[in-house]
Design a protein that fits this description.
26% helix; globular; 191 residues; alpha+beta; six-stranded mixed sheet; 5 helices
């Protein structure tokens, strides 16, 4: 998370207004750290690619994959966000594909292509076979080429610039200016 904080601090010229030590977050996990979630044991798997800070939470037979994978008919996360990396995403997904076939995979959101109903759960075996971008045993170089070509066609999300500034603060708005109002900055021609 501190890598993303540093990129955002520099891109938005936030200086001392954004400490880059992760203190904004209630809890940061080390890669592969296990922790308790009520009566469950959970594990935080580092799955960078979409961003360098992406994490998958493994709880029992379920993995909460965030934006690493989408439903098989939509594919994988884009990698053109600050610090994103298609090779890293490929390796992260291969790590998920090494989980047992029946591991349930829960996505953060769904784009419901071709008018199908919204879905949020798949499993490792289905993703490994059918994922539009990475299924069927695609080689890393082929995935990277396909992912990077697709990313070049995608628009920057409308709320990307404000969201980055709030996300790196652990969901909090920036400190108010002397007039009592918080402000978000918009860098010109950054992305």
């Amino acid at each position: 998370v501190t890598i993303v904080q540093e990129m955002v601090r520099d891109a938005f010229d936030l200086g001392g207004d954004l400490p880059i030590d992760g203190r904004q977050f209630d809890r940061r996990f080390e890669p592969d750290e296990t922790f308790r979630l009520g009566s469950f044991e959970a594990k935080a798997l580092s799955t960078p690619g979409h961003t360098p800070a992406c994490v998958t939470y493994l709880v029992g037979d379920a993995a909460f994959v965030g934006d690493t994978l989408f439903m098989p008919d939509y594919g994988t996360a884009r990698c053109d966000f600050p610090g994103g990396s298609a090779p890293s995403l490929y390796r992260s997904i291969q790590r998920l594909f090494a989980l047992p076939d029946d591991t349930r995979l829960f996505t953060a959101h769904d784009y419901a292509p071709n008018g199908r109903a919204v879905a949020w759960e798949s499993d490792v075996a289905t993703q490994r076979r059918q994922n539009l971008h990475i299924g069927g045993g695609i080689a890393e170089a082929d995935f990277v080429a396909k992912r990077q070509a697709r990313d070049k066609t995608l628009e920057t999300p409308a709320l990307m610039l404000p969201a980055l500034q709030v996300n790196v603060r652990g969901g909090r708005m920036p400190a108010p200016a002397p007039n009592g109002r918080p402000y978000l900055k918009i860098p010109v021609n950054w992305l």
